[in-house]
Amino acid sequence: MRAKPNTPVIEWGARPAESKRRRRIYCVVNCLAGSAADIQREALRQAFDDHGREYEVESIVEICARPKTLTQIVRQAIASGADVIAAGGGDGTISTVANQLVGTGVALGVLPFGTLNHFARDLGIPLDPRGAVEVVCRGAIKQVDVGEVNGFYFINNSSLGVYPEMVRVRERWRPLLGKWPALAIGALTMLRRFPSLKLSLDTDGRRRRRRVPLLFVGNNLYSVEWPDLGGRERLDEGCLSLWLMREASRLALLRSAFSFLLGRLHLAPEIEASRVESLIVNWRHRRLRRLRVAVDGEVIRLRPPLRYQIRPQSLSVCVPMV
Questions:
Q1: pLDDT tens profile 227-266
Q2: How many other C-beta atoms can be found within 10 angstroms of the C-beta atom of residue 267?
């Protein structure tokens, strides 16, 4: 079982600014995320109703995976004086809401309705609707770190190279085939095209030049060993994890993938790993003025240089009581 972040918890009742008024919890739900079917949403409504005598649920809003609409809704909720904004969906939805809450003091409630739910699992948040609502209404608050790249925050990770290309192809085929078949097509297309990037990396006063097919930047340290493969022990350690491949070849990429699945990525000779607090990524290419960058699974285009940094304990999150 993954350990919880070591940041001191704050119980709801211990908040110095707390008054006798009922707490305002504003909930937004991505109706297209993973398992967020009608039965899940009804269970969510009932769970909030059960807490209605103690907590004021402002509203439950269903959105259809439209980030601009979601951002507007969250900003309105902040302006209306919400204490907690609970986001129902996958990691992409949670990340979109978290981007608006960083530094505001408004707490993020996590209702994990996605496929993988990395952020919820790393915080120990229950995956069932009633358990997640219980945490939102009665849990503690912890301050956790977020990563940042050129003004965009990420709660899990960001990457360059083959992964953003794979996601781009996946999203093209997803409406026709579904997520996993589309992902398989994306992986095969990526292996055929095999993009690689000639990058300049500045970390902690040191410059490195690398030609890489994949660069991965994580919010805090990821485990690459079983039984916690792909998880994080802490989300408040104040660091970024940097992973990149030394060899720009398909064989090296496949070897690295198998090493990861076996929990031996830290032993793979083609992988270069380090812990950093900041990172500047640059490239020189006359035709490549913007680079595709994956941020918590969503692909955006950014101009160089890419400035990565950690924002220590800048996000308030509802977590289970210790």
A1: 889 999 999 999 999 999 877 788 888 888 888 877 888 7
A2: 11
Q: What angle do CA 161, 269, 196 make, to 5 degrees?
A: 20
Q: Give the three-class secondary structure for 13.
A: helix
CA–CA distances in Å: residue 275 to residues 21, 169, 246: 44, 31, 17
Confidence of residue 50 (pLDDT cuts 50, 70, 90): confident
Token duo for residue 130: 């009633």
Distance CA 188, CA 183 (A): 9
Q: How far apart are the C-alpha atoms of 279 and 214, rounded to whole Å?
A: 15
pTM over 0.85? The answer is: yes
Contacts 24+ apart (CB under 8 A), 132-137: 133/44, 133/47, 133/48, 133/51, 133/86, 134/47, 134/51, 135/109, 135/110, 135/318, 135/319, 135/320, 136/25, 136/84, 136/86, 136/109, 136/110, 136/111, 136/318, 137/25, 137/48, 137/51, 137/54, 137/55
Ordered domains of the chain (ranges, CATH): 12-145+314-319 (3.40.50.10330), 154-312 (2.60.200.40)
Point out the least confidently predicted range of 62-71, 148-157, 249-258.
62-71
pLDDT score of 293 more than 70: yes
CA distances from 3 to 7, 111, 148, 220, 234 (A): 12, 20, 24, 14, 7
